[in-house]
Amino acid sequence: MRLAILIDFFGGGGKERRCLQLIKGLNCNNIKDIHVIMIDNIVDYPDLYKTTAKVHIIERHGKYDLGVIKRLYKTLKQINPDVIMTWTLIKMSFYLCIIKPFLKCKYISAIVTAAQPIKKYTIDDITRFIAFKQADVIVGNSYAGIKAYKAPIKKSLVIYNGFDMERLNNLKHIDQVKNDLSLKTPFMVSMAARINRHKDYQTYIDAAKKVIAQRKDVTFYCIGKGELIDYYKSQLNAEEQKYIMFLGFRKDVDSILNASTVSVLCTNNKLHKEGVSNTILESMAYGVPVVATTGGGTDEIIIDGETGFIIPPFEPSVLASKINILLDNESLRQQMSEKSQKRIRNNFSLDLMVENYMSLFNRILC
After folding, report:
1. Are residues 23 and 54 in contact, defined by beta-carbon separation less than 8 angstroms?
2. Which long-range contacts (CB under 8 A, 24 or more apart) does 330-339 make?
3. pLDDT-derived band at 169, boundaries 50, 70, 90
4. What is the pLDDT of residues 262-307, one digit of tens each?
5. For residue 147, what is the enclosing H or E element?
């Protein structure tokens, strides 16, 4: 089978991590003829080049460069894939909508990676509608996402993100991580997400301020890049800067999450609802209790009070309270750790995700 994956760029986000994990898993199942087609030459995960995937760049020269459509068509004709998968709505799904009638291959739309409804009568909405009409199968990584995107139920399928258990063997030792971070406190709390408007770092930082006003045994880390880093840094006084750190994009995010006492994910539910967050899955796989805001697919991963805490959005006092509960109760952390790891093994493993995709490929190619 020859597979073409269409994605705008390979940035440092969750859908790119999920795509990379799928490629690795397919390689392990002898699916090696994989082509990744991108518009922008951005690859924040260099492990992509360690797979068998061949990367094609069809750069767009300016906002109105319609030649990119021709280049995409030419590239796909040369590859002649059995299956095309789109991973982004705009721009790749939009371009494919124009040329798909001229291509003879199966089409999987895998754009449902969040659970935020698309605004009606926008380019996004029109592209979504056409893509879903053209697609043989629509894959979402959460039931909440399938519902929010109004995907036709008869051709829709949920395949949860899969965590590769082998990654547990490639982690830095916790002591090394703490040494690399120059950690001076016994506890560390992390939030790994892009620092933009879709993620609610404001609630996280406000909660961190409340916690460190009461105690000085915990350091809070913000892991990710984004346009709002300087804005949030400007809110910290000299004392708070000792306990709230911005690390930027890190290639060792797995090891940092593993070393964390608590993992947090706050989402700006006014702008964005999560599908299935890789940060939550990874934290749970490492046995780290998660505190996350309700909404979207998050409610499909975390069992509130058992594998972590689900809290209302925009409630820093509630977040601070849950963090304090976990920091003060080692027994509770251990119970949540064991239940979290079991849940990931049983419901969100990479083997299960790849098995589901392999079954899908076999079904549509029969």
Report:
1. no
2. 332/289, 333/261, 333/262, 333/289, 336/289, 336/306, 336/307, 336/308, 337/287, 337/288, 337/289, 338/287, 339/303, 339/306, 339/307
3. very high
4. 999 999 999 999 999 989 999 999 999 999 999 999 999 999 999 9
5. helix 143-148
